[in-house]
Amino acid sequence: MEKLLHWTIAQQAGDKAALEKIGEPDPKALSQLFGGPDEATLMKESIKVVQTPDVSTSDKEIALENFEMLIENLDNANNIGNLNLWDPLNKILADAKTPVDLKVLICGIIGTAVQNNPKSQEDFHKSDGLGELIKLAQDGTNKALQLKALYAMSSAIRDYNPGYIQFEKLQGWKLIHFDTTDPKLQLRILSLVSSILSNGLDAKLEEELRKENLTHFLALVLNKDSNTSLVDKSLNVVSQLNKLKYEFTLEEKYEIDRGIQVVEGLSDKLNIDDLNAAKKATST
């Protein structure tokens, strides 16, 4: 509060040198001083705006964009559960009348809130919102919504076994197929595979991956050498498989090794640790 007092005096005096020295004040302290709403209140008000029927879609979009900016802060992300806001977010997402653009924003909010955040992952898991994400990703009618739903889902289950178990029960595995030629969709599916593998590898999962010809697809990506992001993610998945003691067949090793030779010229643009780990997978 003392810093805020010095900042206020310098602001009123127009003392730029003093303002530079003091630095920006704490927004929460400013809010308390001038009586503005705190961030928890702003979060609740944003959701109320989206729930109000006679508010325009553009204003609802602004409300959700502001909400997402707020929950980029870890404490605010965790407050989604504390403020009981997961249920209204899930209901808005599942409502057939909700415009697609709003659904895209909500999927983005979910992904941002739960990413590398066990508390929010747990709260989202308890809200049973994963089923709607799977439904939206399987639909594929709107590409932007499908991609954002996959992003949210990957974040929700990464390093979070209860989320992966729920993903299995809801038949999320139907999303894992590589017959698409859309590189953005391929990248999202590989990210989902990576999230699945973050929870470990057992015989059942290994069988599922073989059934979907995962390693063949990874080798195809490497041999094409056309999309650096896809190549990087493919190497990362190969690296994960190797760390988890996946039993590569001789044919799989040959295909992947041939692909690695193709992409080695891109080593300055790739994650060198994943590249080296992928090499080990084919050499053992």
From TrEMBL:
Matches recorded under Pfam families: Fes1
Superkingdom in the source lineage: Eukaryota
SUPFAM superfamilies: ARM repeat
One GO molecular-function entry: adenyl-nucleotide exchange factor activity
Boundaries of every Nucleotide exchange factor Fes1 domain copy: 1-80
Presence of keyword Repeat: yes
CC per GO annotation: endoplasmic reticulum
Keywords: Repeat
Family listed: Belongs to the FES1 family.
Full protein name: Hsp70 nucleotide exchange factor FES1
Gene, per the UniProt record: FES1
